[in-house]
Amino acid sequence: METVDTVIRSRLNSDVVLIRTIGEYIISAGGKRMRPVLLLLVAQALGYKGSHHHLMAAAVEFIHTATLLHDDVVDESDLRRGRGTANAVFGNAASVLVGDYLYSRAFEMMVDVDSMRIMQIMSGATTVIAEGEVLQLLNIHDPDVSEARYLQVVRFKTAKLFEAAAEAGAVLAGASPAQQEAAAAYGRHIGTAFQLVDDVLDYNGDVGALGKNVGDDLREGKPTLPLIRVLEIGTPAQKQLVRDAIEKGEADFDAVARAIQETGALEHASRCAVAEATLARQAIETLPDSPARQALIDFCAFAIERDR
User: Fold this and answer.
1) Is residue 168 part of a domain?
2) Which H or E run contains 95?
3) Distance between alpha carbon 100 and the CA centroid of its chain, in Å?
């Protein structure tokens, strides 16, 4: 990962000072780097011996960072990773344009890897992610979003880049089609589990640990899984409370949190996350035994037990 960070900073270099400034501002904020880690671990688990995995891992992080820049503008967010978002500090226009630059730079880096299959995977993933962003936009302030509709957004918007990163790592390693599909399935399920845990943390997490404002999804009118669960099984009063909160983006946060607690909605979301993590673990059971494979298995536990 130190090598990946070196690649990230070298490829952030631009004659345009604002690009370097915003890019460094976002990258230096840290983050878990989970998507590039998955790519590295899958490549290692399947015996990759080259050096292109560092470049691809950096490209994946660039794509993720670009989505964050665009997300924060769309959501009008002002806090991420414990400090002001780029759009809050530098403005919306600069954030969108630097996000575009990072997307473009990522594909420029992929050309250096010289794998048409990886280009297919990553270009397809960015298309699906964009579709997920639009689907989420359509769901905002809509209290009639079903669990299935919501999970489609999760798989498009969040899980797809996990899936693409893992599959790209397998392709780099020259894995068999079956192993590539196993890696893709692992990424898809672990990415879904990660987002479902995010949904839980939005209602019981600590803002200092999360690095973002607890309850932001509710204020933005996003019908996440805990809210959808209350709308499915809550009392008429609880359902009306949540419906009004989603439609207006304004509500008594404590009252909504109580309704979520009383209906066991967080436990439901957590069970769904555990089920996804289990599917992820099962997907890689056929991969060769190695420290990297064990790390991927351990990551399943981390994804559902984390507090940030």
Assistant:
1) yes
2) helix 92-113
3) 18
Q: Read off the pLDDT of residues 191-212 as tens digits, 9 standing for 90 and up.
A: 999 999 988 988 875 544 434 4
302 domain residue, yes or no: no
Q: Are 50 and 297 in contact (CB under 8 A)?
A: no
The structural domain count of the chain equals 1
Q: Are the beta carbons of 122 and 164 closer than 8 angstroms?
A: yes
φ/ψ bin of 50: left (φ > 0), alpha (ψ from -120 to 50), beta (otherwise) = beta
Q: With beta carbons less than 8 A apart as the criterion, state whether 71 and 157 touch.
A: no
Element spanning 278, H or E: helix 265-283
- Give Cβ neighbours of residue 149 (< 8 Å, ≥ 6 apart): 139
CATH code assigned at 16: 1.10.600.10
Q: Is 41 part of any domain? A: yes
For 22-37, write each residue's pLDDT tens digit. 877 877 776 778 999 9
| Residue 178, domain extent | 2-288
> Considering the entire predicted model, what is its pTM?
0.91
Q: How far apart are CA 263 and CA 290, in angstroms?
A: 42
Size of the chain, expressed as the number of residues it contains: 308
Q: What is the mean pLDDT of the chain?
A: 90
Find out whether 86 and 26 touch, Cβ atoms under 8 Å. Answer: yes
Q: How many Cα atoms are found within 13 Å in the side-chain-facing hemisphere of 169?
A: 31
**Alpha helices, DSSP H, located in 12-91:** 17-27, 34-45, 52-75, 86-90
